[in-house]
Structures are given as C-alpha cells and as structure tokens.
Amino acid sequence: MSSLKTSTEPNMTRRDAQRSPGGAKQWPEKPRPAASSYLLLIVAGLALALFFFASATSTLVVDFGLARVPLYPLIGTALVALIILVGWVSRTSAMPVLGAMVALGVTWWAGSGIGFTLAPLWEDLHRAAPVLEGFLNPNWGFIWRVWDSWVATIAMAIVASAIGCAIGLLLALGASPVSSPTGWFSQVLKAINSVIRSIPDVGYGLLFVAMLGGTASGGGPLAGIMALTLFNMGVVAKLTSESIDAVSPGPLEAADASGASLIQRNRVAVLPQILPSYFSYSLYVFELNIRSSVVLGIVGAGGIGSVISVQLSRFAYDNIAAIIVALILVVLLVDFISLQIRRRLT
C-alpha cells in the first residue's frame, strides 16, 4: 500500500494544482518541517558556535565598541545561522541542514588545525611588490636562451607517454575481468594499479632523483621519465580497464563461439572497441605530462622546471614571468591539438 501511495503522489500533486485568477498554476506548498527538529538544529548550531570560538587561532577581531569579537568565529556563527534560516525558509528537512552544518564544522576543524588565516594577504602585501613588478615586465628574450630546456621538457613528456601508455594498455587488459585470463590475476593487477596510482608524480620524481641523481649528475631527465612513466601507467590502466569492462558482449560471444584463444579474443573483440578511448586517454596523459614535467624539473628532474627553480633562487621574476607565459601558451596549444584529435577519435 505504501509503495502504491508513493507512486501516485506526483499525479495527486498535479491534480491538486490550482489555477490562479490569471490562469497560472499554483502548486501546493511544501509542508513545513517539524519545529522540534529545528530546535535541535539550533542547539547543535550553538554547540558548533562554541566550538568555533574555543578553537579559533586567528588574532583578527571586530571591534563593536563594547566588545571585541574574533572575526573568524563570528563568520562561522553567522554561516551556521544562515544555514538554519535558509533551511527553515525553504522548508528543507532537518537532515540536509544538519549535513551542511557538519560539513561546515569539519571544514573549520581542518582549517583551524593548520592555522589557516587570510591575514598574510594584506599584512605581507609589501613583499609582493618586487614580484609583481617582475611579472609585469617579462624578459621575453630569456625564453629563447633556455630553448634546450624546453626541448628536454617536451621530450620527457613524449617518451614517458609512449612507454607508460603501452605498459598501461597491457595492465588494463590483465586487470579487467573481461580480458584477463583468470579472476585472481585480474584482482592482483588491480591491486598493483591501485598502489601505482596512490603515489603522485612528484613523489616518484623525488624518489628517482634520489636514486639516479638530479640534473647536476646528468640523471635528471631519466628520473623524470621514470616518474612520469609510472604515473602514466596508473592513469591509463585505470581508465582503459573501465572501458574494457563496458565493451559490447556480442563480439566476445562470437569469439568464444568460434573457439578463439584469449589473445585472439582480445585482439579481435576487445581492442577494436576500446582503441578510440585508449588513444584519447593517451593524448590526455600527454597533456598532463607537459604540466607535470615542469613540476618534476623543480625537484631536480631537469627541463624547464629546473630553469624556473634556478631563476627563483636568483629572484629573477622577469625571467620566470616569461617562462610562465610561454608555458601557458604551450599547454594551451597542446590542449587544443589534443582536443581536435580526440574529437575525431570518439
């Protein structure tokens, strides 16, 4: 009975709609939530406000004449009141309002735990003057003086994309239960992929720079390629295995009926269906590599990132500004070309 009642509620609502004198439909008002639940929300809001004032670390205060109130707890309390007021006016039930209050409380806890404050934005603004002056006067000629570093950055991205995407495809075929030889083999490869993806590219970069040596010892580019390759393997294997999971079963059933081996089955029934998506993922990974190789260069993997690190230590902000503008143009160009190719593939 209850399910029948629920299924007919929309029709009843339409029938209950009335027309105003002007002819427009007037829908029945949403029922007001129970006042008792909102009283509990107010109590929870007061407890949350007390938590704000007790855990505040900022020294910013608002002077009301008779009292000086900490700024951030005041803002937090105002947000709590606003959440409850909006929930009551919009006739929202208590649970979504409570969820919003919990989200606000967790955000406050995270920010207060690290002493988050916006005060340095205006208290230390004088330090930004030489930086802004340098960034507003880029040294365009410096871009061509570090041309070899640009080439090294793009070369690292290309080599890492080629190796990482090729290995990632093999991992995806082994990780998907559709194309894997056995179920346990699929689970093992999925676990390996999860471990590979759990480490960011910068983490791999620091590890390989420590193992192989940085730019000074000549091992920087190899360390960058190794870091990007592992990063690419994890991303491509994850995305491609999900594409394999969603392939059409018709070609698979036809291959099984004809007695094809696993390799023949994957070659004729799986790869043709996922190759457009796979190439699209590979181009996306190449875009990521251009950005990531700059960061890896800063940690010692060579390329244009190392140039940025050196210029930063010399306070040569005009040179850094020229590099950043050129980098934005390079990334936008690669993104545009990749997008056009991906549109033709998918």
Description:
- This protein is mostly helical.
- It contains 15 helices and four strands.
- Strands 1-2 form a two-stranded antiparallel sheet. A two-stranded antiparallel ribbon has the order 3-4.
- A hairpin with a 4-residue loop joins β3 (61-63) and β4 (68-70).
- The longest helix is centred in the last third of the chain and has 40 residues, at 262-301.
Question: Secondary-structure blueprint of this entry?
Answer:
Elements: H1 2-16, E1 18-19, E2 25-26, H2 35-55, E3 61-63, E4 68-70, H3 71-89, H4 94-113, H5 120-123, H6 128-135, H7 141-145, H8 147-175, H9 183-198, H10 201-212, H11 220-245, H12 249-257, H13 262-301, H14 304-313, H15 317-345
Antiparallel strand pairs: 1-2, 3-4
Helix pairs in contact: 2-3, 2-4, 3-4, 6-15, 8-9, 8-11, 8-13, 8-14, 9-11, 10-11, 10-13, 11-13, 12-13, 13-14, 13-15, 14-15
